[in-house]
Amino acid sequence: MSERDEPSLGDSARAGVAAFFGLITLSMLAVLAAGAPVYATADFAAGATVWFICLVSMVLIVTPASNRYFRSQSAAVASPAG
C-alpha cells in the first residue's frame, strides 16, 4: 500500500472538523428558523461566535499551506529537509 491509500491522522482530523462545522451550522439554522435571536439575543450571539470560529478553523485546516502539517509520519521521516 502506498501512503495515499492509508488514511492518516490528518485526514480524520479534517473530517472531524468538517463534521463539527456541519453540526454547528445545522443547529444555527434550526435556531434561526425557530426565531431564537428575538428572544435570546446573547445566546444567539455566542452561538454565532462559535460558528464563526469553527468556520475560520475549517478554512485554515483545508488550505494547501496546512498540508505539510497533516502528512503522515513516514513521509516526514523520508524527507527530513522539508
3D structure, described in words:
The protein has a domain at about 40-65. About 70% of the residues lie in helices and about 0% in strands. The protein has helices spanning about 10-35, 35-40, 40-60, 75-80. Helix 1 (about 10-35) runs antiparallel to helix 3.
**Overall SS class:** mainly alpha
Distance between the termini: 23 Å
Biggest sheet details: none
Measured by DSSP, the beta-strand proportion falls in: under 5%
Choose one word for the global shape: elongated
User: How many helices does DSSP assign?
Assistant: 4
Helix content: over 70%
Average pLDDT across residues? Answer: 80
Low-confidence stretches: none
Along the chain, the helix and strand elements come as HHHH
Q: Work out the number of β strands.
A: 0
CA radius of gyration is: 18 Å
Describe the structure in brief.
This protein has 82 residues and is mainly α.
SSE inventory with pairings:
Elements: H1 9-34, H2 36-39, H3 41-62, H4 73-78
Helix pairs in contact: 1-3
Keywords:
about 80 residues; mainly alpha; about 0% strand; elongated
